[in-house]
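Researcher: Batch entry, complex prediction.
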Amino acid sequence: MSELVGNVLVGQSGGPTSVINASVAGIVAEALNHECIEEIYGTLNGVLGILNEDLIDLASESQQQIRALKHTPGAALGTCRYKLKKQQDFERVLEVFKAHNIRYFFYIGGNDSQDTADKISKLAQEQGYELRVIGVPKTIDNDLPATDHCPGYGSVIKYLATTVREVACDSEAMGQGDLVSIIEVMGRSAGWIAAGAALAKRRDHPHDPPHLILLPEVSFNQEKIIEDIRRVLKREKFCSIVVAEGLVDADGNYVAANAQTDAFGHAQLGGAGDALAEIIEGSIPGVKVRVAKPGLMQRAAAHAGSKTDADEAYLAGQKAVEAAIAGQTDKMVTLIRGDDGNQYTCETGLAPLSEIANGVKKLPAEWVNEDGVSMNYQFVRYAQPLIQGETLVPHDNGLPVYARLDKVRVDKVLPGYETA
Amino acid sequence: MSELVGNVLVGQSGGPTSVINASVAGIVAEALNHECIEEIYGTLNGVLGILNEDLIDLASESQQQIRALKHTPGAALGTCRYKLKKQQDFERVLEVFKAHNIRYFFYIGGNDSQDTADKISKLAQEQGYELRVIGVPKTIDNDLPATDHCPGYGSVIKYLATTVREVACDSEAMGQGDLVSIIEVMGRSAGWIAAGAALAKRRDHPHDPPHLILLPEVSFNQEKIIEDIRRVLKREKFCSIVVAEGLVDADGNYVAANAQTDAFGHAQLGGAGDALAEIIEGSIPGVKVRVAKPGLMQRAAAHAGSKTDADEAYLAGQKAVEAAIAGQTDKMVTLIRGDDGNQYTCETGLAPLSEIANGVKKLPAEWVNEDGVSMNYQFVRYAQPLIQGETLVPHDNGLPVYARLDKVRVDKVLPGYETA
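Model: Structure tokens for the complex:
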């Protein structure tokens, strides 16, 4: 393998997480170690920034700010849900890469983003332009194949399990056998996030909150759930429910008020909690239902983030650079769990982008208890290591301080481009 | 003043907060210092527990658990919204007090609770039963008169300002001039909580999120707000809105979907965020609106609580005991801000319960900027000291650990009582 000299481009894509910036920090830190890398650029708003030639000079950012990225939520480079559609878009990407001698492209994102990275890589190969493309996994949805878990997932479930435990303190204090509290969490088609709330239960306390977890994988049976709620109310005086936004009934219809679709044709949900509240209030006379919907809060809650998650996101960034320098391309970094049953360990590997693109890892059906509303020890064994350790966020004047990049622009050298 | 020998009873009432348990810890710790106090009891679920003679022995709890109350959300003794209505209820309360030689009654709560405490105290005086009643302020609503601020308020606004800052990181990354994110917060009739989100702005950065704060005190003018949003979207590419659940229009009608009433005749709100989202989507073509509704999460978020707030809640509990021992009765502990302009200090005082009961402290109109959607430096100067310092919550296995009381029951000595 010959040494490939040139510039790095980093991009972020899709929905932000608490730790997607930690991956940027890992990439920048590692890239600085290699002399074959000349400049380290970031693209503003993912592929949109490439099309528009909106690049920034990451090496000129202060070390403090790059370090602060390790605990900063959102996506410091900006992100997008723009999907490269036409051949012309891909040609433009390569044109920009060539103009700025981009030889290393690191794209941090989920399924759709890895698909985009894969297509860019293939076009470069077709054109004989030497480019190394490595994807870095990112999604709170935890649904990427080939990787044990995804950076972003540990933090969202740590925050939600914390929240479930806290709201339960409140509801237990208020409950007189008539209080149902619902927390509606993200999860369009998979229950990974809702399932994570199960970690709020203490070991050997199956009756701890959350009492019912309603997953998209288990079709909603109104009569059964109402019976479950009645039983919990009788036993505990209150009932704590976590519901995934993508809850569906036996006919596959969403148990939610409104369904819209986003740019990728995915349904934009919201309202499963409110819809459920209405059903419960209509079925159990005198019951009070309180709905909380953390929405974007859950994927931005770095103040309650998992240190394990942030460390792994950083590691994935570093390893992406190492792999590219070593001559790898067209791969995504994966997280591999050590097989020592006693102590959790995590290493990284690589998987072909084509395997990741548009693939989906399902929540194993055998990790759901027979009751359909709780998770078994297999899930807990899987998820518990991911929430260990507390991210240390510096505070100033009572509030967390997050990174703000200077975003020094790289001079444009190409004519403008019309995005769709 | 003669030394009054007898037992203590502590109760919690109304909606829980992140720090209402810290006041219990302060009361128990201080009560142990005084030999005239023989037993320290707690009532389960406030006045309901008194009527039902459901008392627990707080002195038998472990010191660890009492200390853990300082950072535990919810209301460890249980709370209630039950309102003593008939004379018979009040008679029963005194009967229970006499049966258990309760000579010191500490009631931690808001307006309604202090009203109840006042009535109990007056009846005891009428009957010549020596009883010292001291209220301890508690409410995230921050609307009690006579006190500079209320324990519970600092923590809720610290959590919400943190959340606004984090969700803004997310929305800024996603925004393309078309993203509005709404956080609906508690605040039935006053904007104290919504106003607190203003602390998310850095000093001298008036354009920082939250961009618009919609208060119940400023009637909702749809055209004006839509114009405000358009302007922010143009300038910032995204718009961060905090809306109080009690937002009303010029006719005094709630800008929310459904309005119900609770046991006290207060409207139970929810839906101002969703209603606002609908208005925005209908008014600005192509805009995407994301609504988060923390609901009960905000008043239970001890993991992001204010140390100042928890310390003051504890102090208020201690001072209640000191005052009662010193012969005071029929008073509520108040928080008094030091008049040294440079350094925030807080002492306690006492105010007559009758002054507190059903009184309301309004958010000063002169603390709202002329634009009607932001707070000025007077508010910031008032609120900023209340969020200083981070509550240290111990974690185990990745999650916060909260107190769990043993709740050893005090033997009942009276016949049962039928509550309404």
